[in-house]
Amino acid sequence: MLLAIDTSCDETALSLFDEHDYFTGKRVADCLVSEVVSSQVDLHAEYGGVVPELAAREHLVNFPHLLGALLKPINGDIEAISSVAVTRGPGLNGCLLVGLCFGKGLALGARIPLVLLNHIEGHLFGAMFSADFNAFEYPALALIVSGGHTLLVNVKGFRQYEIIAQTRDDAAGEAFDKCASLIGLGYPGGPKLSKLAQSGDATKYRLPIGLNKDNTSFSFSGLKTAVYRLVQDLDSEVENEQVKADVCASVENAIVVALIEKTKAGLNAVGAKQLFLCGGVAANATLRKELKNLAEEFSCRLIFPPIKYCTDNASMMGALALEILKQDKDGYESIRNMMRNGVYRGTKFREDAAGAKPRFPLTEVSN
Ligand code: KG4
Ligand code: ZN
User: Fold this and answer.
1) Ligand 1 pocket check for 10: Cβ under 6 Å
2) From residue 117, how far is each of 6, 112, 135, 287 by CA, in Å?
């Protein structure tokens, strides 16, 4: 069994996979034995955002209980774990450290391989859970949009990435959340804003589309300022349900148009066979619909994860780890045997000396 761990932000997430089933050709979703995600939303809501120190402490408290719950389907048999995969970054340093320390402890104690992973790359591999996914076809284009990241990536081959565009300031999810907060929708307001937007008129208020001529960058901070001014001008009118819905629809439109326009330019440049939409913002229905139309225009297939694998989870990290191990199956199995016999002295699949990487560009991942 492979144990996957992600504690990069405020979700404590663990998943367990049958490694052998994956190596013998089963789809990743059919190899999933168990998964748990513990959200800390309530803890951070009163501060209006994630408090890193509190999140790290909460991971430390949650982890042992969650591991117990995760192992229930295999009767708590911790010895069935034959490898551990942990997110090394990017993310909040203290949070990453908790997951890494647990992962290292488990791997060292049981003398089993340890694989360290990039969280953004994990978001991409979350798409493997889509019923539309069979295999990666290169080149592919990936739009990875979450609360912390906004990236348009040319996926040239297995683990070969070229960043086409990224944000200069706020991430798309952050823009949803901050605008939602300005409109008075609380935290985290992205999903609430997109729900209200469904009954609003997106043409009602003209809001800026960030950097609409620059296809190598996104920018959402200007939108935030414009929404701040709009809410001030509207004053108490913003309390009116229809006005609120119209503002939400206009905000959503400004974010979605920026994402679509740059993705379109990316598709023109790359000639992609597949278009991936991943990360928390991939849960947005308008974005999905618009990207689907765009993909059809370019005769490429749009693939996005099921909603529960859009936001942070450990199953997407497990999918990535399984694929890494499968690509080097013989090497991995011989290293695992050497470890079991206490004779392995290498560092591959044994990155004990590696620290957390709060900043971990996608282009720095390596086999
Ligand atoms: O991937 P994720 O769980 O965490 C990060 O790694 O950042 O993404 C969370 C982000 C939040 O900013 C949240 O507001 C946004 O995804 N989000 C949405 C929707 N659902 C989640 N944004 C717009 N529309 C949604 N339906
Ligand atoms: Zn994430």
Assistant:
1) no
2) 9, 16, 20, 28
Q: Which ligand 1 atom sits closest to the C-alpha of 180?
A: 14
Mean pLDDT of 89-118: 96
Assign 356 to helix, strand or coil: coil
Question: What's the pLDDT score for residue 210?
Answer: 82
Is the pLDDT assigned to residue 213 strictly greater than 80? no
Q: Measure Cα distances from 197 to 158, 189, 190, 200, 304 in Å.
A: 37, 12, 11, 5, 21
Residue with more model confidence, 49 or 80: 80
Domain boundaries of the chain, sorted by first residue: 2-125+311-365, 137-304
Which structure tokens are listed for 127? Answer: 């798409």
Determine whether the shortest distance from the Cβ of 180 to ligand 1 is under 6 A: no
Cα of 308 vs centre of ligand 1, distance in Å, is 11
Of 111-115, 186-190, 311-315, the range with the lowest mean pLDDT is 186-190
Distance 269 CA to ligand 2 centre (A): 27
For domain 2-125+311-365, the question of CATH label 3.30.420.40 is answered with: yes
Which pTM does this prediction carry?
0.96
Q: Is 284 in the pocket of ligand 1 (CB under 6 A)?
A: yes
Choosing among 3.30.56.10, 3.30.420.40, 2.40.10.10, 3.10.450.50, the CATH entry for 137-304 is 3.30.420.40
Per-residue pLDDT at 15 exceeds 80:
yes
- Write out pLDDT tens, residues 277-294: 999 999 999 999 999 999
Please indicate whether residue 177, judged by its CB atom, sits closer than 6 Å to ligand 1.
Answer: yes
The answer, yes or no, to whether any atom of ligand 1 lies below 6 A from the CB of 266, is: no
Can you count the helices (H) and strands (E) in the chain? 13, 11
The ligand placed nearest to the CA atom of residue 280 is 1
